[in-house]
Amino acid sequence: MIRLLQFLAWPAALGIIIALLALLLLPILRVTPASQSNATPFSYADAVSRAAPAVVNIYTEKQSEEYLNPSLHRQLGIRDHSQKTLGSGVIVDSNGLILTNNHVINSADRISVLLNDGLTLQQLLGVDKNNDLALLKIHMDNLTTIEIGKSDEARVGDVVLAIGNPLGLGQSVTQGIVSATRRWNLGINNAENFIQTDAAINPGNSGGALVDAHGRLIGINTAALDETNSVGISFAVPVDTAMKSLQQIVQYGEVRRGWLGIGADPELATLNEGEYPIPIGLKVYFVESGSPAEKAGIKKGDILTHMNGQPMTNGGIVANQLANLQPGNQVKFKILRENNSIEITATAEFPPTVRTET
Predict the structure, then answer these.
(1) Which listed residue (88, 103, 179, 302) is catalytic?
(2) Rounded to an integer, what distance in angstroms lies between the CA atom of residue 297 and that of residue 223?
(3) Distance between CA 169 and CA 311 in Å, rounded?
(4) Domains in the chain, ordered, with CATH?
(5) What is the pLDDT along the chain (358 residues), one digit of tens a residue?
(6) CA 309, CA 218: separation in Å to the nearest integer?
(7) Which distant-in-sequence residues (6+ apart) come within 8 Å of 62 by Cβ?
(8) Looking at 88, 151, 172, 206, which residue is catalytic?
(9) How confident is the model at residue 355, as a pLDDT?
(10) Burial (Cβ within 10 Å: 0-12, 13-18, ≥19) of residue 194
């Protein structure tokens, strides 16, 4: 019996040694506790607790154009003659910088921000109308801020949470997934590069936070496809875009955009007119005199096939790059001219009206 146990002990000991070596050499085999891993959690309470304190309610008032006669108001006993709207905002800097949507505060006579400890007035630093963004500042220090994520790393299928003030109910959270990225040509903004989600976004959610499963900000909630019916399609401005606008507003008081002086047909040019034409790019229909495009050598009738290495057939990427072009940026075009492919580099400038003013 003893000999039998001794005989079996060697294989067992050898197995244990091999297992220990495998764990040392192959870390992937180690079991990591869920609390220490990056795996998607079963509950999003921790993500909400991290992000929610930085999401605020915004209330605006605008003098109604229908009631502009004070004496008539007194006769009729009308006291409140203002239009009120509501929305949300996100604290992105501990010194009081708040991102929201431009349409939330547009034309408002009075803007109030509701923090946990009460209402406070704010200063409007600037807007980015093309991306429907506005930057507010409240004069308070050491505010709780949200962690900034990376919207360009968002993937279809990622879990997201929308935090805001829907329908005036107070702060609420809805959950969904990223349904699509780089959505454009929707007629919502001039510069469209939306994150699409099925997380419910209702009136009042505008300007609030779209966060990932770990509570990191990846977008500013902007619009639902149909606010009268729930169809599960909503859109958010990527946080990468929002933070670039913020930096320019802080630095310049406005968002500066570059000018090329070129116009292209929105309908894609095709390689042939056969039964199955192949889209190849955008056809230039005008070039402004003295513009960066003319200086670079672009001509009417050229077909732009690529911009900075991106095919011009990828409308969402190209439209977003053009809409957010900065003065001084170099743009590399690949052009088809009389069946010859050539490369041209144009340098964006300030638009003529801005250049004249400065």
Answers:
(1) 103
(2) 40
(3) 45
(4) 47-63+80-137 (2.40.10.10), 151-252 (2.40.10.10), 262-357 (2.30.42.10)
(5) 555 445 555 565 666 666 666 556 655 445 545 445 555 567 899 999 999 999 999 988 876 655 555 554 555 555 555 667 789 999 999 889 999 999 999 888 888 888 866 767 788 999 998 889 999 999 888 889 999 999 989 999 999 999 998 887 888 999 999 998 887 666 666 667 789 999 988 888 899 999 999 999 999 998 887 655 556 788 999 999 999 999 989 988 888 888 898 887 766 777 765 566 777 888 888 899 999 999 999 999 898 889 888 887 766 667 667 767 888 999 999 998 888 899 999 999 988 865 433 3
(6) 26
(7) 82, 83, 84, 85, 107, 108, 109
(8) 206
(9) 44
(10) buried
Burial of residue 4 (number of CB atoms within 10 Å: 0-12, 13-18, 19+) = exposed
Cβ 113 vs Cβ 86: under 8 Å: no
- Look up residue 51 and give its two tokens: 């992000």
Per the residue annotation, which of 132, 198, 212, 302 is the catalytic one?
Answer: 132
Q: Does the annotation mark 132 as catalytic?
A: yes
Amino acid in the structure at residue 326: Q
The tokens for 16 are 């244990």
Q: Which two tokens stand for residue 73?
A: 């108001």
Between the alpha carbon of residue 46 and those of residues 29, 33, 50, 176, the distances in Å are: 27, 16, 6, 16
Rounded distance, CA 11 to CA 190, Å? 71
Token pair for 307: 């911009």
Residue 71 a catalytic site member: no
Length, in residues, of the chain? 358
Q: What local confidence, expressed as pLDDT, does residue 240 receive? A: 92
| Residues sharing a CB contact under 8 Å with residue 130, sequence separation 6 or more, in sequence order | 189, 190, 191, 255, 257, 323, 324
Three-state secondary structure call for residue 176: strand
33: which DSSP letter?
Answer: P
Sign for the CA dihedral angle at 267, 271, 273, 276 comes to negative
CB 108 within 8 A of CB 122: no
Predicted confidence at residue 7, as pLDDT, reads 52
- At 174 the pLDDT is 93
Please list the helix, strand and coil fractions of the chain in percent, rounded to the nearest 5, in that order.
25, 35, 40
User: Is 206 an active-site residue?
Assistant: yes
